[in-house]
Structure prediction request, 363 residues.
Amino acid sequence: MNTKQKIFLRRFIRDLEQIKGRHTELVSVYIPAGYDLNKIIAHLQQEQGTASNIKDKTTRTNVIDSLEKMIRHLRLFKKTPVNGLAVFAGNKAEREGQQDIEVWSIEPPEPVNTRIYRCDQTFVLDLLKNMVEIKDVFGLIVIDNREGNIGVLKGTSVLEIAKFESMVPGKIKAGGQSQQRFARLREEAAHDFYKKVAEAINKEFLGLKELRGILIGGPGPTKETFLDGPYLNNELKKKVIGVKDLSYTGQYGLKELVDKSKEVLAKEEITREKEVMDRFFEALSKDPQKVTYGKDEVIKVLEYGAVDLLIISESADEKLIDQLTELAEKTGTAIEFISTDTSEGNQLKDLGGVAALLRYALE
Prediction:
């Protein structure tokens, strides 16, 4: 998702959050990528029939008219867009008794995988919010002696990339030479299994620019044996930010790994923002001619094409964000958005909500 898409989606979400239904009358529909639009339209027509049974006249009228406007809007599409579609309709009139039915739609920047139809007092926006929060990719590795799973975390979406089943035999109670020979065979099978999993991990994650960190988990001590052994590439070992004990492997294990790593992941996001702001404040103290801040000053240096990195507070005015990002895109300037969840983020807000690191010093 590029910066322009992110800003547009944030504004879209913010606008819809302002609209509140007096009853369960706001319609939200998510259409998965590749889904037949005609089936969605047929479903909405059925819902119109169901809505005719709503006792309250105003709510009944608003729901039926919202569905009708949504159906008309969907008929403008020849087919479902590549990433699917999110459509919303409802009465946006502020005064009770008035009607101003509006329909909004967006092709999300990430594929829609879930079909949703809901009538409520607010629009269903969690799916879109999850997409806009996507900033980095985290590698996920779940392993024990029976199974290995590789996945990624994008925003709040856990995606399994690969799955491996081991040929490591279970433990036996035999004694003497048989036990030693079996232990040796078991060790060799485990080694081959770890090597196979590691080769796939190295192939998937090495060179992945968006990779922020790697989480490893699994039942028992296998995960530590795997991590400490000569399997993972050293560059990837440096990116391991957490090792967690799990109850499961497989898809459940990947999700459990994410659930048990929430604190680590939260710290990583804050760390990224701190790194950006530390870079700015260091330049401000050591080389002040190569930084600037405040709306007017930043706009001026953007127009010169002198900005290397544009730093914008998420608290900044929407119109200002639009103006700055448009200028930045014209000159190929990188953009970082900073939350107000840290002291550094609040300092940026106090500086006017916008700052810039320059490519060269300006007189």
